[in-house]
Amino acid sequence: MATLAEDCDLSVFDHRSVQAKIDGIAAGLPPETRVERESDSTEIWIGAALAGAGLLLGSGFAWWWFQNRRTGF
């Protein structure tokens, strides 16, 4: 919402109006269909895990390529 407000120049009144509509829609949903947003710490851990996996995969590929280059393949 904050990004939308900054990009589209929404007034505080418009921002509150949109948020009230979102809250009204969410309140009308059955509890089992509601999806809670991940916490910031969870998002950080997911990002760190993906970055670590990428580094591991990249270093493994670099090692494989270097070994093949040394043997003349």
Structural class designation: mainly alpha
Instruction: Report the β-strand fraction as a percent range.
Output: under 5%
- Could you list the spans in which at least 5 consecutive residues all have pLDDT below 50? none
What average pLDDT do the residues reach?
82
Radius of gyration: 23 Å
Distance between the termini: 54 Å
Write the H/E string, N to C.
Answer: HHH
Question: What is the strand tally?
Answer: 0
Roughly what percent helix?
A: over 70%
Q: Largest sheet, described in full?
A: none
List the total number of helices.
3
> Which geometry do the CA atoms define?
elongated
Characteristics:
73 residues; mainly alpha; 77% helix; elongated
Describe this structure as you would to a colleague:
- The chain is an all-alpha fold.
- Helix content is 77%, strand content 0%.
- It has three helices and no strands.
List the helices and strands and how they pair.
Blueprint: H1 2-8, H2 12-28, H3 40-71
Short description:
This protein has 73 residues and is mostly helical.
